[in-house]
Specification:
The complex is a heterodimer.
Chain A: H1 2-42, H2 44-49, E1 53-54, E2 59-60, H3 63-94, H4 97-112, H5 115-134, H6 141-165, H7 169-177, H8 182-193, H9 195-211, H10 214-219, H11 237-244, H12 250-281
Antiparallel strand pairs in A: 1-2
Helix pairs in contact in A: 1-12, 3-6, 3-9, 4-6, 5-6, 6-9, 7-8, 9-12, 11-12
Chain B: H1 2-27, E1 37-41, H2 46-55, E2 58-59, E3 62-63, E4 70-72, H3 75-83, E5 88-93, E6 101-103, E7 105-106, H4 113-118, E8 124-132, H5 137-147, H6 149-157, E9 161-162, E10 177-183, H7 188-201, E11 205-211, H8 214-223, E12 228-231, H9 237-240, E13 244-259, E14 266-267, H10 269-277
Parallel strand pairs in B: 1-4, 1-5, 7-14, 10-11, 10-12
Antiparallel strand pairs in B: 2-3, 5-13, 6-13, 8-12, 8-13, 9-13
The chains are: A mainly alpha, B alpha/beta.
Chain lengths: 282, 287
């Protein structure tokens, strides 16, 4: 009897494991099956490197959106990583216990806020600020980068903090014993030792930033043009899909699914490099 | 050594910020002659289709909306963006207009329910329902309800304009069954309210509403997938020749909105067209 229940549970666990794998495979199959024919019909170079996206004139070039996604993500990394990293160092090495009890849940809360709420915050607070200081409409590359920079903070902070904590204490103590100050020990001995783990956190952050949709769509302006500066509006790959999916039909719809294929490939590359780094870090 | 480098970086970045803000101050304009921020809707939106057609932005079937126009995918984001930017211009359904923004007069005519009804306000579109000739008894009764004074009152309460203001009252029929509607996402909100009310009066009826867009709705009606199609545009000749009939259930104005602080009160259709196609880029040019 006991033996039976054990093997039954084994099967249950196996099924549970399979469900998630099947979901991934189904998504892959669906995306590629409906996206790849569209890319073929449009022409792969016209699709990936075409400069204009005008579905009503049968022009489906997503190059501005690819560049837009890359710019916005890069901007969010420039803004989010230094702040996140320094915050993680503070939390792991400098933070008094009492403050930590507030800081840690606050960071976790930041991760739990729905992205549409971030979007509204961006629209009501960051957009007017950028508009006031730099002119223009305020919906631009910079605004989207700032907002995404805030959104990726929790990912970077929590991954970096746990990796800094994982560095053996004798690195720090040894450095102190050699006469280095506390700052020097933290930044020159502990941080380099946690380098790989921190980098993995940054890559997770990139993944979050590039896939973010609802918040970005509200603050980036969504012009399907090549951004000319940090106050120029951009449209990201995700924004392109969510903006037009509701009304699209025919080739237009397939072109949007093909956009999702490109995004999927981006995420795949990011995840693979994350796994590779993780393996090197361990 | 560490500290001095940190100090250097700090000074550098601080001075960069200062130069940056000074430069942006120098470039600032007096209010009133700012560059126009054009806000449009996404490709395929019914509101955008109607707006570009009515103002002549659609030239030879090509939508000439300027590339640098900001794109929003909902009425509320358009309103919010215009409310927060004193150089912005956008367009929304008249039914969604509120105090946070100002609707400009078009060719000297104010965007009001009365002016849409009288036909003086040019930027208006019909909300249509599309049916085939062999319509069942139940869908017919639902249409009777929409066109009755009760149905039309709901249309008006939702902020649209009645298509029929001398209608009779509706009496519950006691019919049973399911009605399927498909089509325009602009028409759907008011249709959902109408359906709820109808279900209150006829408790044995189920109404399904699918938001698929005007074109797809008309297509499904033609194929018999749904009973009634919803469209926020008129039927094209091609569609009408295949045996479909359309009926106006409401009128909707499209309000051209600017910031409350904007001094502009009145724009001509041509000026609106030029603004949205990028020929006019500064508010000083429309004074």
């Amino acid at each position: 009897m006991r033996k039976y229940s054990e093997s039954i549970m084994k099967v249950v666990f196996l099924i549970a494991a399979c469900v998630s794998i099947i979901a991934v495979i189904l998504i892959c199959v669906f995306l590629f099956a409906s996206g790849v024919p569209a890319i073929k019909e449009i022409g792969i170079s016209d699709f990936l490197l075409g400069n204009s996206w005008k579905p009503n004139q049968e022009l489906y070039g997503i190059f501005p959106m690819i560049i837009g996604s890359i710019y916005v993500t890069a901007g969010s990394i420039i803004i989010g990583v230094p702040i996140g990293l320094l915050c993680a160092v503070f939390m792991a090495r400098y933070c008094p216990k009492g403050l930590y009890r507030i800081l840690k849940p606050a960071v976790d809360l930041l991760a739990g806020i729905p992205s549409i709420v971030y979007g509204f915050f961006g629209l009501m607070v960051i957009v007017p600020m950028v508009q006031g200081s730099l002119g223009g409409s305020g919906k631009c590359l910079l605004t989207a980068s700032i907002l995404l920079g805030i959104m990726i903070l929790p990912t970077i902070i929590s991954v970096s903090e746990s990796n800094i904590r994982a560095v053996p204490e004798y690195y720090y103590e040894g450095s102190l014993a050699l006469g280095a100050t506390k700052e020097r020990s933290v930044f020159r001995a502990v941080l380099p030792a946690a380098k790989m783990g921190i980098l993995a956190g940054v890559i997770l952050g990139i993944g979050r930033a590039i896939g973010e949709t609802m918040a970005v769509v509200m603050v980036c302006g969504n012009q399907a043009i090549m951004p000319e500066g940090i106050t120029s509006g951009v449209r990201t790959l995700t924004a392109n899909i969510v903006l037009e999916m509701g009304y699209a039909s025919g080739l237009h719809r397939e072109a949007l699914i093909a956009t999702a294929v490109v995004l999927f490939v981006f995420i795949l590359i990011i995840n693979l490099s994350f796994t590779a780094l993780k393996r090197r870090a361990d | 050594m560490k500290k001095s480098r940190l100090a250097k970086i700090l000074t550098l970045s601080l001075s960069a910020v200062m130069i940056f803000s000074l430069a942006s101050c120098g470039g600032g304009n007096e209010s009133g002659d700012k560059d126009i921020t054009v806000i449009s809707r996404e490709e395929g939106s019914g509101t955008r289709d109607a707006f570009t057609e009515l103002t002549g932005i659609l030239q030879d079937d090509v939508d000439k909306t300027v590339d640098t126009a900001e794109i929003s995918n909902s009425t509320s984001v358009v309103t919010q963006s215009v409310a927060g930017n004193d150089a912005a211009i956008g367009y929304i359904s008249l039914g969604s207009l509120d105090d946070s923004v100002k609707a400009v007069k078009v060719d000297g005519v104010e965007a009001t329910v009365d002016n849409v009804k009288s036909g003086d306000y040019k930027l208006q579109r019909p909300f249509n329902i599309v049916t085939k000739s062999d319509l069942g008894e139940l869908p017919q009764d639902f249409i009777k309800f929409i066109m009755s004074s009760d149905g039309q009152k709901i249309v008006e309460e939702e902020g649209y304009i009645m298509a029929n203001d001398s209608a009779e009252n509706y009496k519950a029929s006691g019919l049973k069954g399911t009605i399927t509607l498909a089509g325009s996402t602009s028409v759907s909100p008011v249709m959902e309210v109408l359906a709820d009310k109808y279900k209150e009066l006829n408790s044995d009826v189920t109404i399904e509403i699918q938001q698929t867009g005007s074109g797809a709705g008309i297509q499904s009606t033609l194929e018999g997938v749904c009973d009634i199609g919803m469209a926020s545009r008129a039927l094209e000749d091609e569609e009408a020749s295949e045996g479909l009939t359309s009926q106006e259930i409401a009128l909707d104005g499209i309000a051209v909105i600017v910031n409350n602080d904007n001094a502009v009160e009145d724009l001509t259709t041509e000026q609106i067209m030029k603004i949205f196609t990028g020929e006019i880029t500064n508010w000083a040019d429309v004074k």
